[in-house]
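Continued from yesterday's entry.
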Amino acid sequence: MRIALIAPPFITVPPKLYGGTELFIAKLAEGLDRLGLEVIVYTNGESTIGVEKRWLYPKEQWPLSGDIHDNLKDLNHTAWAVRDAAESCEVIHLNNAAGVACSRFVDCPFVFTVHHPHEPGLSEYYAFYPEVNFVTISHFQRTREKMPRIRTIHHGLDLSLYEYHPKPKQYLSFLGRIAPIKGTDLAIAIAKKAGIPLKIAGEVQPMFRKYFDSQIKPHLDGKFIEYIGEADLETKNELLGNSLALLFPIQWEEPFGLVMIEAMACGTPVLAFPGGSVAEVVRPGVSGFISPSVDELVQHARDIESEISRSVVRQYVEENFALEQMVRSYADLYEEIAGGKAVRSQTKDERAIA
């Protein structure tokens, strides 16, 4: 079976730093390749994904300015990719909303993974495309939508890339966009009240520069509250793996929260506010705790080493959010909607032997 995975054109696949959707596409592509499916990733020319890639735009472009020309670039890239993929692929898998409109012109099964939270305007738009197979990344997200063809497939991680740390250092961590909806300021408040240092990593997007300058920067002293910038995989392993807990005090309905399972993969529990998918990802008393109360999370932060076993946290993520589970679920979906036309190609190991 030949699958087209269409990414937005703005961030490399895999991402160098920020890019949850692009990380998902990279790991899905590699996993499908290992299963024996042929994969083409439509991205930009700077991408380094280890499967066949095609591109219209040679360079990545991030962060975006918000200009109308960025939207047109996204649409132009996606329309070209859909047209190209329709010539040789049995399933086209989209990851940007603009691409859904292109499904109207191509006689091919389409999958669209909904990476964003529920937005009424987008849901109204999706309703015009009942033949598209929509995938939500949490059960909570699915309950907000009404498309006729919809299922949930949770994200999964290549756990071999995340180092298990049995003994943490004495600090808390925050990893994510520095934005009000992510609750970076609340993470600082929790750390200060708990009396435990906090290390913050994440992108400061232009639209949230004022928030960073007014709500975050005044607290940074390089010691108790430290901002370390954006984080690549090596930095994530060190930051998350050595921390007592990841703070996840979100202020929105989180669609999934990939960073939560990245922390768990290192053996690090998560202390989170409720919202969206959090209750599906964090199992209280096993992989962390969920509470709307700052004071309760403060107490858990102080007692986390006695409350949670880091080896159990790692086991929990292995059992529930391994990459292989996610990849197999998507492969099953592709086979289902391809209508029996697809024949499995050789796996990567079989091709090597041949």
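--- second protein ---
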Amino acid sequence: MAKKKRRTNKKQPPARQAAMVITKTRREWIKELAEMLCEIAPGTSRGEKSFSIKSVAVEFGDKKIWKDLSNKKKSTAAYLELLFRRFPRKPKKIVLEIVRGGVVWTAKKGKRVTPEQVEAIGEQLQKLGVEARKELRAINIPEPSQIKRPADDLLSVLKGIDLHPAIADDCIDLFEKGHLNDAVRKSLERFEKKVQDHSGNHDIGKSLMSRVFNDGNAVLRINDGTGGNDKSEQEGFMHLTMGAMMGVRNLCSHGDVDTITPMDAFERICFVSMLFKRVDEAIAAQTTGENDASEDEV
């Protein structure tokens, strides 16, 4: 007699959602989503418990798939692409957590994430087949905090100084409105861009400064290299610029850092102006030397 098959009440596990195929168009959408998120959230933070996109990835068990690339937008885009490719249900949770933390982080920097920014993130997710607009709209957006407006006399002094033109407009406007960390950060980002443009080296931060101003193979020399102190001055300038990237710009870029004092911001902006002017002098001298060499050849 044939045995009857036993019935089982075991629930079958839910079917796993098929992995997303990352087409060229979807990759571009993911890149745009990453850029939107990076506008309202830091890529990394100093402490493990501090908020950042990376800390969210670690919290959700994705430490091994997060890659620290050359900048936070690339790192975030690469991370999101892996999520969409491998875990299609997960991006919604990750993005919601980033936005929840990002609106608070942005408020601490003295700015406010707009409802339009949040709505745009929802629309970008929808392009990728993820519906999260209702949850995004429900997120409370706090008002800006930690704005420290400088005293009128200090602001008057700063406006009266012959600052380098690259930082004499909106950087001063940020300073006047009390966005002190942002004023310093923006001034150094522009300095970094100037060094990149005139050296042809598109590295970033400390590495860029080390390569461009290294006395042994300087792309931009701040002196003619013939005097006894020229080598020391060149090396010292390299360390000044490297320190500016590591200890000033990077610090002011983190949302978990308190707003610096108006006097501190004042002194740092003046320091960046000095760096700009020395580089201008180096570029002018280099151009003159190249022109003189061309005339001699003729």
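The chain has two domains: 24-137, 152-297. The longest helix spans residues 262-297. Will compare against the first tomorrow.
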